[in-house]
Design goal:
This protein is an alpha/beta fold and 211 residues long. It is built from eight helices and seven strands, in the order E-H-E-H-E-H-E-H-E-E-H-H-E-H-H. It has one domain: Spore Coat Polysaccharide Biosynthesis Protein SpsA, Chain A, CATH 3.90.550.10.
């Protein structure tokens, strides 16, 4: 089966509203791409078009596959990215994930892809009530999930599961993980990092900041 992993990136420009500095957001994305080398799937950088692709290529290299996000709002863009992977590029299964869950491992990504062999949807719950990963197989793709359960808010996972129930989509949940939204989250992770983050660029930057 052909598998695709979409890393969904915002434009990491200085003006982006975020509690995390731009260099740390970029390092988190680099850490995620480094981990995904072992996920057993084709990795695609799904990038926000507010930043030209040449900037992403200068940052992450030209030897990657880049797809521009399309549509207004994160929900529409996520749905369109998955539709492109499954309906246009004809991957058998695809998962989309965010770079703000640094505790994610390649093993969990493989588990998510494997789950799509028997269920039509997979979600990676985050501890804030949202999710850091969502995936479908070709037959189970449900764009309405993202319009009826727009990402954001503490109850988005519950809303997403309700939509999946309405459409009778069977869902697998993989490991619940924390999402990083501020420096304190990364400092906590840096104090006791999982093995796969031993060479994390993001955690190295946080340690260099001190405090």
């Amino acid at each position: 089966m052909r598998s695709c992993v979409l890393l969904f990136l915002d434009a990491p420009e200085p003006g982006l509203e975020s509690a995390l500095p731009g260099d740390i957001r970029r390092a988190m994305a680099e850490d995620m791409l480094s981990m995904l080398r072992w996920a057993g799937a084709e990795v695609v950088v799904s990038y926000a078009p507010e930043w030209p692709v040449e900037e992403y290529q200068a940052w992450l290299g030209t030897d990657r596959t880049y797809w521009a996000q399309s549509g207004k709002g994160p929900g529409t863009r996520m749905a369109n990215a998955l539709r492109r992977a499954l309906s246009v590029k004809k991957f058998d299964r695809a998962v989309l994930l965010f770079p703000d869950a640094p505790a994610l491992t390649d093993e969990t990504v493989r588990q998510a892809l494997d789950a799509l062999a028997w269920n039509s949807c997979v979600l990676g719950p985050s501890r804030d009530g949202g999710y850091y990963l969502v995936g479908f197989d070709q037959e189970g793709l449900l764009p309405d999930l993202f319009s009826r359960a727009e990402p954001g808010g503490p109850d988005v996972l519950a809303r997403a599961r309700n939509v999946l129930d309405i459409y009778r989509r069977r869902v697998t949940l993989v490991d619940e993980l924390p999402r990083v939204t501020e420096l304190a989250d990364l400092r906590q992770l840096a104090a006791n990092p999982p093995r796969h983050l031993a060479r994390s660029k993001a955690l190295a930057l946080v340690r260099a900041l001190g405090q």
